[in-house]
Structure to design on (730 residues):
């Protein structure tokens, strides 16, 4: 079977009239301006899938740039019958390879991201120099405390120092921390980077005994011990930078909501802090049922639902420290043989309740 | 479709050039499959999707009856993007993280660093554009002959950087002259096989349209400033109290929404004004361009450009991006329909390009999203 065709040799843009013939070896090409050659059928590829009414354009893997244009439809059909891959059906082998490449890279990307975000920040948090931690703590505190009034800090206030020292009793390994009380419009307590713990006036108001405040404080000291705030900040920065790269720029995490999202720890982190608190309270002979009672009260509040609006609920302790029955159950009373000593005497407790005036 | 088997015989005689966009079915299928796989593969398929669309659209552009052919592969684009991520973005991420951690997220020094990073990226922006063009040309075949871009991407990049900086310093008045320089370099470096494009012309004719558009946008800007001032004054105290106090959710959202809506409207208006300059620039640049004995004409007009852009925007927005290939097709078709070529090209003198063909493509351009179609 033979036909006339146009041939581009891949060397010059000019076309050449050729005659084509199907021979046992493949496709024989010959013409007045062309040295005779044979294209093997296996090496043939269609530039675009064969479509009725359009010329069939062929290339050959051994001759990049060379193109053959066949206009005669019966010849093209016969050729496609002999070389089915010219019909342009889905190439399963290529599709499979493509799926493998994409699947593998997607999996690799997700795995790397997941591992980086879950493990790296926690390890990095422990190699951060103290000056960096203090720096971060300053800025986080400044931006979330806003215009809120600082009532007292354990570095200058005797009452807060007494409370802190009471918790440190028989806990020589506890991390150094500074306790600050703010008058803010929310009920919460935070562990910030650099060993800083912030408690709000509303939290002290809501507590019915010094044991409850001590329990919350012990929990936050647990966060400080595990450097959860630092890890969370590193994680958030990593995610933010990634998002910026994907989206091509964006806002930085400086907003109020952004910071609170940072201080919202994972469940594992909360469990770690709870278990640290339990341990610390037992050693200091403070009754852990105070913390338990406080959690139960929070849970009731949570059940009622807060009416603070879209952002209102987010700022309260129920959202940053979600209380679950599991967490409440995990808190055990003092073991047999350990007698509770009061956290603060009545005068000090009364003073603490009036610390913001 | 029927055509002569052979080019007009007789070596040495020039051939008139005609450009035509010949639509063919199949783009809808490509668009749907691309959209589906884009989502399924968490966007990684985009390199292959882009390749499929280019293959189709290139094949619709017929020059003297012979279609263009796109020979690029998705894997090349993917590899290019991976390399750029490793060389550019990973070091930047690490640098920024260390700075943020050591100085804290709101340290003033970070603003300086961000500014420096912006300049750093601006320095590479032109390179991204140039390399993307080079990749696309080296993957474009006509009659089996590759295109090429033979210059240095560093030179172009520096020129582009200077253009951007000067534009800021001269309030934009250097732009027409500098754009001409950029176009001269890009077009002058372009080849079909061995045959060079040439670009020659003065910037003078660009300044008339530029002055008109500049004046109108200046007036628009002043009107906007007056409008903003008036609305703040007219609204009295509440914006300030809202912004200072704990913002209520509804108010914050309302303000942000109003801000973005205003920004969008102004941006659209601004682009519309400048479409008239862009149209003149396209037409003038085309008339400065020659290939062998042929000169180009592109009948671009402001209104047709606006219609094209708005149509494409609506097309993309209302199909959630699924119809993006059709928007790209409209863009290419616009140029094919409005482009004509006077004079002739001696096809016998077009030989295969001897430029090396790179193995990876468009990494930077993809990252900066300037890769074109």
């Amino acid at each position: 079977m033979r036909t006339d065709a146009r041939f581009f040799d891949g060397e010059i843009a000019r076309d050449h009239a050729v005659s084509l013939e199907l021979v046992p070896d493949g496709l024989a090409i010959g013409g007045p301006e062309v040295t005779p050659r044979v294209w093997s059928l296996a090496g043939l590829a269609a530039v675009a899938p064969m479509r009725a009414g359009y010329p069939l354009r062929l290339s050959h893997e051994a001759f990049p740039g060379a193109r053959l244009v066949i206009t005669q439809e019966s010849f093209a059909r016969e050729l496609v019958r002999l070389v089915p891959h010219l019909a342009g059906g889905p190439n399963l082998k290529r599709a499979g390879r493509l799926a493998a490449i994409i699947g593998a890279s997607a999996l690799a990307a997700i795995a790397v991201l997941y591992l980086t975000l879950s493990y790296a920040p926690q390890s990095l948090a422990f190699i951060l120099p103290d000056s960096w931690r203090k720096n971060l703590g300053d800025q986080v505190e400044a931006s979330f405390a806003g215009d809120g009034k600082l009532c007292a800090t354990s570095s200058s206030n005797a009452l807060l120092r007494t409370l802190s020292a009471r918790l440190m009793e028989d806990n020589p390994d506890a991390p150094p921390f500074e306790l600050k009380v703010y008058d803010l419009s929310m009920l919460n307590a935070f562990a910030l980077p650099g060993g800083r713990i912030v408690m709000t006036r509303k939290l002290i108001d809501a507590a019915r005994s010094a044991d409850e405040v001590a329990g919350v404080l012990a929990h936050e000291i647990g966060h400080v011990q595990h450097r959860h705030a630092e890890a969370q900040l590193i994680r958030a920065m990593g995610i933010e930078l990634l998002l910026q790269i994907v989206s091509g720029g964006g806002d930085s995490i400086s907003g109020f909501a952004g910071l609170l999202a940072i201080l919202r720890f994972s469940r594992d982190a909360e469990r770690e802090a709870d278990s640290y608190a339990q341990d610390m309270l037992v050693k200091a002979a403070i009754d852990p049922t105070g913390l338990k009672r406080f959690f139960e009260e929070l849970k009731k509040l949570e059940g009622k639902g807060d009416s603070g609006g879209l952002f209102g609920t987010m700022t309260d302790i129920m959202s940053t420290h979600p209380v679950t029955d599991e967490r409440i159950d995990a808190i055990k009373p003092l073991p047999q043989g350990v007698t509770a000593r009061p956290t603060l005497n009545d005068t000090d407790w009364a003073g603490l309740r009036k610390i913001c005036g | 479709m029927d055509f002569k088997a052979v080019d007009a015989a007789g070596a040495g005689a020039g051939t008139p050039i005609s450009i035509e966009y010949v639509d063919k079915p199949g783009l809808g299928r490509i668009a749907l499959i691309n959209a589906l796989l884009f989502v399924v593969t968490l966007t990684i398929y985009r390199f292959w999707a882009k390749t499929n669309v280019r293959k189709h659209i290139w094949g619709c552009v017929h020059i003297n009856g012979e279609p263009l052919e796109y020979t690029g592969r998705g894997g090349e684009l993917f590899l290019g993007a991976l390399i750029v991520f490793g060389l550019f973005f990973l070091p930047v991420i690490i640098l920024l993280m260390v700075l943020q951690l050591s100085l804290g997220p709101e340290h003033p020094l970070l603003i300086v660093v961000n500014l420096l990073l912006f300049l750093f990226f601006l320095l590479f922006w032109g390179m991204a554009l140039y390399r993307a063009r080079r990749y696309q040309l080296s993957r474009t075949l006509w009659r089996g002959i590759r295109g090429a871009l033979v210059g240095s991407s560093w030179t172009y990049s520096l020129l582009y950087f200077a253009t951007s900086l000067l534009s800021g310093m001269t309030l934009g008045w250097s732009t027409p002259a500098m754009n001409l320089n950029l176009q001269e370099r890009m077009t002058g470096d372009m080849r079909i096989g061995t045959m060079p494009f040439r670009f020659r012309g003065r910037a003078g004719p660009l300044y008339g349209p530029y002055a008109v558009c500049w004046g109108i946008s200046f007036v628009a800007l002043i009107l906007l400033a007056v409008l903003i001032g008036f609305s703040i004054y007219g609204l009295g105290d509440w914006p300030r109290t809202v912004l200072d106090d704990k913002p209520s959710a509804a108010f914050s959202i309302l303000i942000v929404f109003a801000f973005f809506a205003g920004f969008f409207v102004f941006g659209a208006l601004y682009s519309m004004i400048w479409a008239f300059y862009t149209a003149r620039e396209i037409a003038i640049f085309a008339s400065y361009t020659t290939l062998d004995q042929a000169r180009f004409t592109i009948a671009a007009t402001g209104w047709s450009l606006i219609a094209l852009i708005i149509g494409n925007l609506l097309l993309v927005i209302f199909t959630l991006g699924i119809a993006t290939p059709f928007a790209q097709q409209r863009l290419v078709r616009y140029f094919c329909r409005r482009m004509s070529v006077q004079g002739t090209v001696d096809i016998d003198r077009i030989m295969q390009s001897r430029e090396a063909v790179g193995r990876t493509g468009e990494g930077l351009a993809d990252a900066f999203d300037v890769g074109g179609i």
